[in-house]
Amino acid sequence: MIKNNEKLLSLYVHWPYCEAKCPYCDFNSHVNEVIDENQWIKSYKNQLYYMKEELLRNDIDFKNLNTVFFGGGTPSLMPLGIIERILDISSNIFGFDTDIEITLEANPNSYDRTRFIKLKDIGINRLSIGVQSLNNKYLKFLGRLHNIKDVNIATRDASSIFDNISVDIIYAFYDQDLVEWTNELETFLKANNLHHLSLYQLTIEEGTKFFKDYNKGIIKLIDDDLASEFYKVSNNILTDFEFIKYEVSNYAKEGFRCKHNLNYWNSENWIGIGPGAFGRLWSSNSKTKRIEYQNYKNPKTWVSRNFFQAKFDKITEFDCHVSDTDVLMMGLRLYEGLDISKLNNRSIINDDSLNYLKKQQMISFKENILKIHEDHMIKLNSIVNYLINP
Fold first, then answer.
1. Of 83, 176, 79, which Cα lies nearest the Cα of 135?
2. HEC profile for the chain?
3. How many beta carbons lie within 10 A of that of residue 315, not counting itself?
4. Residue extents of the structural domains in the chain
5. Do residues 236 and 230 touch, judged by C-beta distance below 8 A?
6. What's the pLDDT tens digit per position in 356-371?
7. 128, 154, 165, 275: which has the fewest Cβ within 10 Å?
8. What is the Cα–Cα distance from 28 to 253, expressed in whole angstroms?
9. In angstroms, rounded to a whole number, what is the distance separating the alpha carbons of residues 371 and 363?
10. Are 348 and 338 in contact, with CB atoms under 8 Å apart?
11. Residues 124, 104 contacting (CB under 8 angstroms)
12. pLDDT tens, 219-276?
């Protein structure tokens, strides 16, 4: 039986627009269009009220929102009036925890000090900067519109305005020099007062320009053994700078773990509003039932369908197996591991596979906590698939 903390509730707000589409990005993002701010505010508002009704209909107990996350796309391009209204409406409908975490993603090329100050004034208290690379060569390769100078200015000024700064970086490119990467990372960490770091190795996602280029042989991926070495070296550097690794790709200073993402990884309740966003709720009427709410992806379709009353593209009830697979996959991302009492059905884990992985010292299983050993976190997906299947 699921034993989730029903008082935790998060809100994800999707803004789908960017200045350009990056070749590696498989998120629901589109090049900037002219919009009607009032229409967007009304559509967001309708979805928020609808989700409050869903919480009541499914008898979901919660206290207040404990996190809000503006993702995209490039949310730092959002009109400030829309951000402010979403926060006001959400506070009125759901209530905010006194220590609520409110994150907004920003790009160095859309940086503006005055705008950062205004974002803080209307309630943003955590900024996540899409640095993506510490090398101009790879920034160009990734299709980014900024350079290292932009990164340094935006990160430095953001740190003087916000008390909680996170950056996203992609690394482990084909032909990337390990020593060069080590020097870049150490220099960046010395120069900036960061609280959180998301460090992702480059992957090729279906539907992206990189996916087409990879299939044509235009781009290549780094060797698995070298990728593993990049992972280990990066972990060591971040440890030296007093970052705590708490998830397969995420590191934080003490007290600065991302509460919003922890809600995802711990399979808590969250609401998703905006084009392409999705949310998941555990129904208290049936402890084994999880409901997913999927939004229309096309921004114009989303606005037209939600302007008069909230409508979702798809609402799905997950069965126990699907729910448990998701709980297992998300929970094992965490360095502290997963309490398997969160599973509806313990038998989803194949005992022979479990014993083999324990003998290989790839996982540990003590006092109901299933945990992947640090050196093998990079093999997360393969390990979970092996655990589930005979």
1. 176
2. CCCCCCCCEEEEEEECEECCCCCCCCCCCEECCCCCHHHHHHHHHHHHHHHHHHHHHCCCCCCCEEEEEEEECCHHHCCHHHHHHHHHHHHHHHCEEEEEEEEEEECHHHCCHHHHHHHHHCCCCEEEEEEECCCHHHHHHCCCCCCHHHHHHHHHHHHHHCCCEEEEEEECCCCCCHHHHHHHHHHHHHHCCCCEEEEEECCCCCCCHHHHHHHCCCCCCCCHHHHHHHHHHHHHHHHHCCCEEEECCEEECCCCCCHHHHHHHCCCEEEEECCCCEEEEECCCCCCCEEEEECCCCHHHHHHHHCCCCCCCEEEEECHHHHHHHHHHHHCCECCCEEHHHCCCHHHCCHHHHHHHHHCCCEEEECCEEEECHHHHHHHHHHHHHHHCC
3. 11
4. 9-263, 321-390
5. no
6. 999 999 999 999 999 9
7. 165
8. 30
9. 6
10. no
11. yes
12. 999 999 999 999 999 999 999 999 999 999 999 999 999 999 999 999 999 999 999 9
* pLDDT of the residue at 3: 41
| Structure token digits, residue 244 | 């705590």
Q: Are strands 244-247 and 165-171 parallel, antiparallel or unpaired?
A: unpaired
Rounded CA separation 317/373 (Å): 33
9-263 folds as TIM Barrel (3.20.20)
pTM to 2 decimal places: 0.95
Type of residue at 83: I
Share of the chain above pLDDT 90, in %: 86
- CA distance linking residue 222 with residue 212, whole number of Å: 17
Q: State pLDDT tens for residues 292-321.
A: 999 999 999 999 999 999 999 999 999 888
Angle between helices 380-388 and 320-331 (to 10 degrees): 150
